[in-house]
Amino acid sequence: MAPVVVIGGGPVGLSLAMELAYHGIGCAVIEPRTSVSAVRPRAKTTSARTMELFRRWGFAERIRARAPIPVSWSSDVVFCTAAAGAEVTRFTGTLGLRLAGDDLAAEPGQQVGQPVVEQALRDALGGAVNVRLLFGYRAVGVEQGAGGVSVRVSDASGAVSTIRAAYAVGADGAHSIVRGAMGAVYEGGNAGRPNLSIVFRSLRLGSLIRDRAVHRWVLNPAAPGVVGPLDLDGTWWAIATGRPDDDRDADPVASCGP
Ligand SMILES: Cc1cc2nc3c(=O)[nH]c(=O)nc-3n(C[C@H](O)[C@H](O)[C@H](O)COP(=O)(O)OP(=O)(O)OC[C@H]3O[C@@H](n4cnc5c(N)ncnc54)[C@H](O)[C@@H]3O)c2cc1C
After folding, report:
1. How far apart are CA 9 and CA 31, in angstroms?
2. Which residues belong to any copy of the FAD-binding domain (predicted)?
3. Is the same domain home to 11 and 121?
């Protein structure tokens, strides 16, 4: 019987496995995604508090070494009329990126894409003796018994097996099956006009923008959103705000020029 089964290997589940390993407690992590996708745009900022956790595990410098944008590059957030348009206002020292040497935090935050963080966590855990990474498996049922928890997992072929553990932790995101098994209910719903997250390549955009900022908030009502660099080599993230719901079906990989 495993001491702990972590259901979900996103940043929270993988971080929990790191913390358990740090305390010498073994675990198994169940995660359907066999690999980390670079075009799954989510977190771009790792907070100072998270970097402090990483520091405790001896992991903060490894994240900074993999981050394509050094923390010293910029801590600015700009509000503007277009990504390469007129600046309306600018804030510096945002997102905890300027906290190096500050009494408030042992580590500053770090601009680094979530896929980079997830891959670094996977790599670090791959070398941990008491962690089993079960990629390609999905939890399909969780049952609490007198002596522990039974977690039913299915592999890609649909074959189901059972893992017994003293504890199971739900880190399986917004549609958590663990939440359902506990009888907890998700309240609320999606926004009527959701945001659309995009990762794109453009060398031209970089040549049009002369200043440095980690976020560019575009106030233009015709195309509102946020855009920022994922690296210093022409890869960008953008969040188009208030898009119509049918954007959801957009081709995830589209090409639109240089
Ligand atoms: C556009 C956007 C921008 C964001 N920007 C930031 C930011 O800058 N900074 C920040 O800190 N946060 C940011 N976030 C939030 C951040 O992405 C989430 O807080 C984070 O992903 C939550 O991690 P998690 O591990 O709890 O959940 P998830 O990342 O959702 O991971 C859950 C995992 O569980 C797995 N799973 C699902 N069902 C099962 C199952 N049945 N069995 C086993 N595994 C299962 C999934 O495959 C997934 O890997 C952003 C989010 C979005 C969408």
Report:
1. 5
2. 2-249
3. yes
- ipTM of this complex: 0.98
Ligand 1 center to residue 6 CA distance, Å? Answer: 14
Would you say residue 10 lies in a domain?
yes
* Ligand 1 proximity of 228 Cβ (cutoff 6 Å): no
**Which pairing describes strands 110-111 and 87-91: parallel, antiparallel, or unpaired?**
unpaired
Tell the residue nearest (CA) to atom 10 of ligand 1. 43
The predicted model gives 38-56 an average pLDDT of 93
CA nearest ligand 1 atom 2, residue: 42
Ligand 1 and 225: CB distance under 6 A: no
Residue 58, in any domain of the structure: no
Per-residue pLDDT band for 257 (boundaries 50, 70, 90) equals very low
Share of the chain above pLDDT 90, in %: 80
CATH of the domain at 126: 3.50.50.60
